[in-house]
């Protein structure tokens, strides 16, 4: 371990996972040491890295820095959880060794927000992307408001249900939240952080600072790049698991409306995987039979299965409509209505298709806002229906 003595009760614990990132670690540590708020510790979680991480840490003669080396390698999620468990601070900041704090006052602002709002579970901000050591652009998916805001937890959860918009390097979390709700689930290597942000927002409010105060590095060795290289069925499995688990957690906690929002998203997610990315039919990641098997396995009961299946079929119908396969569109509308006849919008869409060119034109106008690139002309639709 580096440093002669470490405070046992810092206000903030930075947990810095590091594996094969010794060449980038100095930038990360220096950005932490440059903070105007100094009541913190830095736990460099060296996951048995084969490089010179120990020597890099020893170069920083600051008693707030600890070097903790795992033997053997734990893997990224176990390493995260070990660091969180060792953290002595009231607040925990998990930041990878390849990311940096780009403003020296971010920690001061974050701690102030958390102290003023005891019901906030975590605070985050947008981030800029780093390529080859230079900031290139805003990570636009991380921008969620034009000004600083404290979101009601379920309000932010309705944002998170569509995708993970929280960049892990930007988030400061109350340690008591991890103690109450648990840390990262080990069986979700791709979506573990998304699960955590959702779970925390289910029970706590979320603070958001609009200024991008973190730089998020993208390179071949980054965790994001490594996981994206394995995209496909593994990532699909993790995404679905997050949605099902948060739905169950919401239901258990008595949040019926939130559970219903996640059911709706689950239906769309199945439809997306059957129809490929963003409901584009080619390149499907699951067969319809695989969707059915997953749905039967995960649904709480037959009624929930029918509800989700009905909406899954309706979303698949929309995918077929986008691809001008109108017979299949009608077929999946029929399937959905057999599962749940109480879907008035689906009845209306089906009726529009049956009425011919005029109905197709009306549906085309409604559809264009969502899929402006699709050729959904009334003439093409009429040809398909004949």
Radius of gyration: 24 Å
The dominant shape is: elongated
Mean pLDDT: 87
Determine the CATH superfamily of the largest domain.
Answer: Spore Coat Polysaccharide Biosynthesis Protein SpsA, Chain A
Strand order of the largest sheet: 3-2-1-4-10-6-11-9
CATH topology of the largest domain: Spore Coat Polysaccharide Biosynthesis Protein SpsA, Chain A
CATH class (first level) name of the largest domain: Alpha Beta
Number of domains: 2
Number of helical elements: 16
Low-confidence stretches: 1-7, 276-282, 371-386
Strand content: 5-15%
CATH architectural grouping of the largest domain: Alpha-Beta Complex
The profile of the biggest β sheet is: 8 strands, mixed
How would you spell out the order of helices and strands? EHEHEHEEHEEEEHEHHEEHHHHHHHHH
What percent of residues adopt helix (DSSP H or I)? 40-55%
Coarse structural class:
alpha/beta
Description:
With 386 residues, the chain is an alpha/beta fold. The chain folds into two domains: 12-228, Spore Coat Polysaccharide Biosynthesis Protein SpsA, Chain A, CATH 3.90.550.10; 233-385, no CATH class. It has 16 helices and twelve strands. The protein has helices at residues 25-33, 53-58, 76-86, 106-116, 153-160, 175-181, 192-203, 223-228, 233-252, 256-274, 288-298, 302-322, 326-339, 344-354, 357-368, 378-385, and strands at residues 12-18, 40-46, 65-69, 91-94, 100-101, 120-124, 127-131, 134-138, 149-151, 172-174, 205-208, 214-217. The strands form two sheets. The protein has an eight-stranded mixed beta sheet, sandwiched between helices. Helix 5 packs antiparallel against helix 7, helix 10 (256-274) crosses helix 12 (302-322) and helix 15 (357-368) packs across helix 16 (378-385). The protein is elongated. The protein starts with 11 loop residues before the first strand and ends with a helix. Mean pLDDT is 87; it is low at 1-7, 276-282 and 371-386.
């Amino acid at each position: 371990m580096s440093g002669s003595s470490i405070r046992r009760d810092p206000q903030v614990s930075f947990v810095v996972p590091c594996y094969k990132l010794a060449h980038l670690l100095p930038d990360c540590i220096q950005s932490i040491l440059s903070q105007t708020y100094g009541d913190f510790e830095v736990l460099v979680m060296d996951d048995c890295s084969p490089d010179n991480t120990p020597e890099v840490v020893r170069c920083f003669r600051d008693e707030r820095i600890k070097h903790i080396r795992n033997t053997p390698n734990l893997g990224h999620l176990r390493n995260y959880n070990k660091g969180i468990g060792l953290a002595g601070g009231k607040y925990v900041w998990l930041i990878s060794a390849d990311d940096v704090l780009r403003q020296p006052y971010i920690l001061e602002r974050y701690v102030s927000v958390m102290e003023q709002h005891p019901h906030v579970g975590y605070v985050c901000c947008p981030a800029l992307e780093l390529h080859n050591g230079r900031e290139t652009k805003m990570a636009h998916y991380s921008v969620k408001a034009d000004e600083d805001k404290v979101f009601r937890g379920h309000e932010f959860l309705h944002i998170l249900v569509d995708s993970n918009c929280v960049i892990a390097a930007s988030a400061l979390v109350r340690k008591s939240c991890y103690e109450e709700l648990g840390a990262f689930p080990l069986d979700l290597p791709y979506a573990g952080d998304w699960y955590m942000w959702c779970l925390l927002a289910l029970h706590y409010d979320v603070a958001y600072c609009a200024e991008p105060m973190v730089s998020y590095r993208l390179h071949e060795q980054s965790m994001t790049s490594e996981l994206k290289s394995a995209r496909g069925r593994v990532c699909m499995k993790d995404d679905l698991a997050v949605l099902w688990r948060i739905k169950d957690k919401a239901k258990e906690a008595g949040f019926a409306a939130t559970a219903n929002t996640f059911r709706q998203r689950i239906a769309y997610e199945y439809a997306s995987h059957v129809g490929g990315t963003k409901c584009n039919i080619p390149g499907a990641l699951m067969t319809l039979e695989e969707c059915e098997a997953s749905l039967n396995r995960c649904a709480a009961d037959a009624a929930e299965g029918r509800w989700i299946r009905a909406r899954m079929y309706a979303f698949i119908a929309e995918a077929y409509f986008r691809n001008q396969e109108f017979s299949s569109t009608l077929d999946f509308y029929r399937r959905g209505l057999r599962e749940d006849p109480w879907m008035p919008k689906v009845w209306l869409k089906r009726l529009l298709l049956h009425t011919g060119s005029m109905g197709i034109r009306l549906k085309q106008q409604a559809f264009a806002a969502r899929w402006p690139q699709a050729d959904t002309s009334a003439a093409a639709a009429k040809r398909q229906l004949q």
